[in-house]
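Crash report, auto-generated. Payload:
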Amino acid sequence: DSGVTQTPKHLITATGQRVTLRCSPRSGDLSVYWYQQSLDQGLQFLIHYYNGEERAKGNILERFSAQQFPDLHSELNLSSLELGDSALYFCASSTNREAEYGYTFGSGTRLTVV
Amino acid sequence: KNEVEQSPQNLTAQEGEFITINCSYSVGISALHWLQQHPGGGIVSLFMLSSGKKKHGRLIATINIQEKHSSLHITASHPRDSAVYICAVSFTTAGGTSYGKLTFGQGTILTVHP
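Recovered output after restart:
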């Protein structure tokens, strides 16, 4: 157990639907990062939150949004789902904004859109 | 363009062999990470480097900042080392900070046969 908890582990949903992925960072970590891993694009950075505020955005689609709550857990919302959104979604956490001490990754949520 | 290139893409070895995986990147970085991902599994952070060399058990990671190159070595490889090894970097922005955002290589699939 890495200390980063992601739920659910697996999710199967239909095109056009909306899902929410949840991430609880390791205790004491203030930063949460979301990554998408697909067969054709590999691992890509989506978004970074630090202590409740958005700090950086990567290749995140407008249909996707995220937030970090006061208890530091984060949710990634994916809407109007398309087949191409099927992927592994990883969350990682770090102690501070610059990840000076590295990252701890969760085990991922596997999203299948049918 | 900030890029990370890994080689080889696939690597097959016999148990006991010495293994090297290479990673090169295009511009200045604040840190380089080696990650391990087992089939169907989560991501484990192996090393975080900004200079020099680190060792953990049979794994050794080195980085040459001037050459913009890093290597991951596995001594006395074992079938349990079979996994995908991913190089990831935090590129330094014009403002001198990376905000912890990672850019990933495409990964090296390592298979170690008994």
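Post-recovery validation: DSSP finds no helices and eleven strands in chain A.
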